[in-house]
Amino acid sequence: MFAPTTSTDAVSGAVTGLTAPTLAPFAEITVRDMTAELAAVTAAKVSAENALAAAVANAATAKAAADAEIAKLKAEAVAAKVASDSATATAIAAKDAEIAKLKADNAAALAALKKAFNALATKWNKANPKAKVTLVK
Questions:
Q1: pTM of the shown model
Q2: What values do phi and psi take at 77, rounded to 5?
Q3: Do 42 and 35 form a contact (C-beta atoms < 8 A)?
Q4: What residue segments make up the domains of the chain, in order of their start?
Q5: Exposed (0-12), middle (13-18) or buried (19+): which is 24, by Cβ within 10 Å?
Q6: Could you give the CA distance from residue 32 to residue 10 in angstroms, rounded to a whole number?
Q7: CA distances from 103 to 3, 100, 107, 111 (A)
Q8: Sign of dihedral through CA atoms 34, 37, 42, 45?
């Protein structure tokens, strides 16, 4: 039988396809404080949740202020429209009254002119029976 051979030379024991052998295998183990890490992550999470809650509260306050401002502007717009409609109606009524007055004044002036013409035409017709002038109706 053959006796197994051992080698202390790392190079002579290398086998193709396997990891290279090492002369002094060791591992470094870093000790971590998982409790402290968990506490730090938990504190960061709580801080983020608090910041989010504050942001949500600020957004709700801002929305309420914006809604109040919108309601105020809508009320002002409605009041402005009512005032505008009232001013428009007043202006239309004043215009219609002015037109009616002008029509009445024109009708009165025209009636006076016709009356004066007819009076003059009547005098003419009496003085000149052969060259009569037709009266205006």
A1: 0.47
A2: -65, -40
A3: no
A4: 37-102
A5: exposed
A6: 34
A7: 141, 5, 6, 12
A8: negative
What is the 3-class SS of the chain, one letter each residue?
CCCCCCCCCCCCCCCCCCCCCCCCCCCCCCCCCHHHHHHHHHHHHHHHHHHHHHHHHHHHHHHHHHHHHHHHHHHHHHHHHHHHHHHHHHHHHHHHHHHHHHHHHHHHHHHHHHHHHHHHHHHHHHHCCCCCCCCCC
Residue 107 CA, chain-centre distance (Å), reads: 56
What is the C-alpha to C-alpha distance for residues 23 and 13, in angstroms, rounded to an integer?
11
Who wins on pLDDT, 78 or 7? 78
Query: pLDDT: is 131 or 45 the higher one?
Result: 45
Distance CA(128)–CA(115), nearest Å, equals: 19
Residue pair 13/7 in contact by the 8 Å Cβ criterion: yes
**How far does the chain reach from its first CA to its final CA, in angstroms?**
159
- The tokens for 22 are 């090492």
